[in-house]
């Protein structure tokens, strides 16, 4: 199959994939072009035609990773909507506490946790994007989750039950060590 035929089959889907990652039309077009240059130059490395689609998407995925690595792009979650939401009424919710606890996490824990648990990224992809070893990312996410549980115990007097789940009732907002500030 020619590069032109591969383009006709997959260019639109690859463009949507890239755009979902970089959120910039000009960068998307550049990365799409880079992807298909690699498809053209590495075409002979594909041994099984039935795996063409996954092969092209893999090239696109690694092209996006390379872009993030080369530009040393990081995700600053301090401005994220999840963290920036304010509770309009004066009701005190678990989300208020969670938002405050996450804001207070050290950035080295907060960023991987956000990417994994809120953005839904795979840990291997997070490791690639943050340029960290996978075991480091895994331990940072686990540590962040532990700190969140501890935050609920410190903030609102929650306890861990026998199964390891947080149980308890929220305190009044004025009594909450995280939300009252």
UniProtKB/TrEMBL annotation:
Keywords: Sigma factor, Transcription, Transcription regulation. GO terms for biological process: DNA-templated transcription initiation. This is Sigma-70 family RNA polymerase sigma factor. Belongs to the sigma-70 factor family. ECF subfamily. Residues 9-72 form the RNA polymerase sigma-70 region domain. Residues 96-146 form the RNA polymerase sigma factor 70 region 4 type domain. Coiled coil: none annotated. The keyword Transcription regulation applies. Signal peptide: none annotated. Pfam families: Sigma70_r2 (PF04542), Sigma70_r4_2 (PF08281). GO terms for molecular function: DNA binding; sigma factor activity. It comes from the Bacteria. InterPro entries: RNA_pol_sigma-70-like, RNA_pol_sigma-70_dom, RNA_pol_sigma70_r2, RNA_pol_sigma70_r4_t2, RNA_pol_sigma_r2, RNA_pol_sigma_r3/r4-like, WH-like_DNA-bd_sf.
